[in-house]
Amino acid sequence: MISSGARRAAWLAAFAAAMGILEAIVVVYLRELYYPGGFRFPIVRMPDRIAVFEIFREAATIVMLLAVAALARRDRTDGFFVFAWLFGVWDLVYYAGLRLFLGWPESLGTWDLLFLIPVPWVSPVIYPVMVSLLLLAGFAANEMAASKGRSAAPARVGWLVSVAGALGIVISFCWRYRDVLDGHVPGDFPAALFWTALAIAASPFVVATCAALRQDPRGASGKR
Fold first, then answer.
1. What angle do CA 182, 131, 134 make, to 5 degrees?
2. How many angstroms separate the CA atoms of 155 and 175, rounded?
3. CA contacts within 13 A on the Cβ side of 22
4. Best CA proximity match to 16, nearest among 103, 86, 68
5. In 3D, which of 102, 77, 91, 101 has the Cα closest to residue 134?
6. How far is CA 113 from CA 57, 121, 161, 173, in A?
7. Which of 5, 139, 161, 188 has the greatest number of C-beta atoms within 10 Å?
8. Which are the contacts of 24, defined by CB distance < 8 A and separation ≥ 6?
9. Which uninterrupted H or E stretch holds 121?
């Protein structure tokens, strides 16, 4: 019999996958208009009015994921992991959809324009894919911990460490924003910054997950 947790994860994945396909189709339209010969850098500057619409569309996508996470969560901490699951599935299905519809990206090393808020985010595809895979792993770890009545969430200090790591990841994605705005092909991606920031962001959750899974299921006190 399918557990309630597995059923929840499946429905959340279905929603996120549908969003990913929908966004991929929107990008198909955009590339037909602005990149009929195939997407590449330097990017084609959209009219200001269309660029504003794109920013609103991106913001609306994040709000939709947050809203579903808020509705599906068991508690506040669980809401973070639900959002991670939604975001990871959405992002991976988005790239899978583009590969299916357009044969793009050609490889994980292909550069992409990821986001526009507050400045353009750019990187080879492998880096956002790694973030999404880590988010999916975090949700899975929390579900395993929840089955034991625990949580994979770190303590407050751990959250601060993870936020610092997440900011480092964002900085790595925004590192070449000036190249994009100036109409140039992006320079080298700051891979060392990205991997260091990713490790910092993930480490408190790894520690919390290991502690939760090895804790005595009869309780932290070990009473019989």
1. 175
2. 30
3. 11
4. 86
5. 91
6. 15, 6, 27, 9
7. 139
8. 93, 94, 95, 97, 98, 100, 101
9. strand 121-124
Global confidence as pTM: 0.92
Tokens representing 140 are: 């899975």
CA 108 → CA 40, 95, 96, 105, distances in Å?
A: 14, 10, 12, 7
128 with 184: CB under 8 angstroms? no
Residue 3, pLDDT score: 75
- Domain spans, the chain: 4-214
Location of structure tokens 């962001």? 201
Residue 83 binned pLDDT confidence (cut-offs 50, 70, 90): very high
| Terminal-to-terminal C-alpha distance of the chain | 30
**pLDDT, mean of residues 101-125:** 96
